[in-house]
Design brief:
This protein is mainly alpha-helical. Helix content is 96%, strand content 0%. The model has no long low-confidence stretch (mean pLDDT 91).
Length: 105
């Protein structure tokens, strides 16, 4: 039969082993939690990056459309101005032709 001090020593050793195992499990759990948190942050950062890229692409697309629309409007305006200049020139020529026979008489 074991004496009391041997039994207490065995109990304390068993308790210490349990505490070490618990500490190791706790450390593993904390490491896994930290890794999961880091992965979550990376995923969120990637999602933000994708959203920002998508928004930038959409802004670029809108800016290009607006620039094309402005260019088209300027071209139309220039074409209308050219038509008006040609119409004015034709009107002047027509007026000169009409007034010329009167001047010859």
């Amino acid at each position: 039969m074991m004496d009391f001090s041997t039994q207490m020593s065995n109990n304390i050793t068993h308790l210490a082993d349990g505490i070490r195992v618990d500490a190791a499990h706790r450390e593993d759990a904390m490491r896994h939690e930290s890794l999961a948190r880091e992965q979550c942050h990376r995923i969120q950062a990637n999602e933000r990056d994708w959203m920002q890229r998508d928004e930038a692409l959409e802004r670029d697309k809108l800016q290009k459309q607006e620039a094309l629309e402005r260019e088209r409007m300027l071209e139309e305006k220039a074409a209308l101005k050219e038509e008006r200049v040609q119409a004015d020139a034709l009107s002047r020529d027509e007026l000169r032709v009409r007034l010329q026979p009167e001047a010859d008489e």
